[in-house]
Amino acid sequence: MLSVEVARQQMLETIPVLPTEKRGILGCAGYVLAEALHATENIPPFDNSAMDGFAVRSIDVKGASKENPAVLSVVETIAAGYAPEKHVSSRQAARIMTGAMMPDGADAVVMQEVTELVGDKVKIFESVEENENVRFTSESVKQGDCVMSPGKVLRPPEVSMLASLNCAEVTVYQKPTVAVVSTGDELTPLGEPLMPGKIRDSNRYGMYAQVQNAGGIPIDMGIAPDDAAETERIFRESLAKADALITSGGVSVGEHDIVKNVLTKLGKMNFWRVAMKPGKPQAYGIIDGKPIFGLPGNPVSSLVVFELFVRPALLKMAGHTDLLRPTFKAVLATDVTNKDGRVNYMRAILTEQDGQYIAKTTGPQGSGILHSLVLANGLIIIPSGATLHAGETVDAQFLT
Ligand code: AMP
Ligand code: MG
Q1: CA of 298, closest atom in ligand 1
Q2: Nearest CA to ligand 1 atom 14
Q3: Using one digit for the tens of pLDDT, what is the confidence trace for 15-34?
Q4: Which residues pair with 331 in a beta bridge?
Q5: Which of 6, 37, 303, 355, CA to CA, is 20 to 30 A from 28?
Q6: What is the CA radius of gyration of the chain?
């Protein structure tokens, strides 16, 4: 059986990165930049004050103190958004607001808190160094600088930077559209009464939310019954509509696990038995250039396999290069054993105490016990065959 790392690596190597598109600045958050961005303007575009106060010549306030203030004539008030009209000469000052343009002649700003305005004069109670409280032209970004490179994820700070560069439109990688299908005759959609032998279809909603959470655009393709022709029709329609297809159920060894046969008919697929618990049976392949993930039917397995395999794949499609969640060490709060020959991704509550993470498992860990994930904020990774005692450390990762 393949290890999670090997299977995931093999899978990721085959995942295509989607083409690029242009997006307006108001609709680009969460996308990955596909071009290099050079500054067409200086930021800031002019020398300006970092404080509300008085623009002065530092030499005029040298040695100023509470007892022995410098007294300067105020020549004008400069508000943010307006150009100064006067020159600041010897023994003069200009009242200035944060972000307002520095007047000629002044080389520093004294903050308002250490001054007192008396008529058209200002008393200055503290000295300032030359350049103090001044923000200089291009100190943040110089015209021509490369400010962002391809691969940069556009978070709010990047969006803000685009705006300060007068960049209203950017070239980004497309986000994948992802068709989501549940399979199984036992599944009942929300709102319909549960007949004997039937259960709620939970996986489709979970997968839908996971696609959104991973930055993809889900397309709900409903429930495929355990009927080969109908399943094939739904899968084909899904592939026509979306960049990727995710199904749940029907990839195990049961008599009605027809997903396997249908996918094999559509193209070349791997039916993987990945050495992990939950989630041993899985299917993965590329058909017509589009990734297809056959997730196991058990709710916990479906969610965990998505997390470990599908999420990084969707991130890669969208142009991300940082695909895997970071792992870190956590200290076990209780003993755990994993008698299985497969690594066990246990659901856990991770809390920080005295500078280290403590991991507590969330009760019964069966792959049908969805509540074990609802209670968890992370996974802990228990190697196959391991018996670990409280106080020993394990690898852990957060879930969002
Ligand atoms: P399967 O792999 O299709 O045999 O499914 C394994 C288990 O997961 C069975 O108990 C199914 O009833 C359950 N299951 C499959 N699909 C879903 C779903 N969409 N929502 C909830 N449970 C499911
Ligand atoms: Mg089934």
Answers
A1: 8
A2: 297
A3: 999 999 999 999 999 999 99
A4: 358, 393
A5: 303
A6: 31
